[in-house]
Specification:
Blueprint (H helix, E strand, L loop, with lengths): L2 E7 L8 E8 L2 E6 L3 E7 L8 E6 L8 E6 L2 E7 L11 E4 L25
Antiparallel strand pairs: 1-2, 1-8, 2-3, 3-4, 5-6, 6-7
Length: 120
Amino acid sequence: TDGNIMSMSSVNPQTSWNMPPIAASGSKFRGKIWNNSYLYSSTYTQGEWYFVCLVFNYSATSSERYQRLYVNGEMVAQQTGISYSSSGVDNYLFFGQQNPGADKTGYYAGEIGGGGRRGR
């Protein structure tokens, strides 16, 4: 189902600057950076486990600025030459929570596992 898998905010609880860098939306995994650049996976199958990773590399040269979305270790989408504006402070990470700001995809209704153990 749709919802935030992982989101960030400059405050806790999320009442200010925030964004969901990884979400489930329309039966696809989605990666996002602040300037509204999106990456999408292929359609996923509900009830199956997936490993989803968003990699963001911001370097001094535009040829090294990219974000990549991986699903089960395979790069499924990439964007190069992107820009980014930082919040300028340390940020909190939230897993499965809704956020009041950008892309209000809501609570993640799936399961999140780690280290070989199942969790919610």
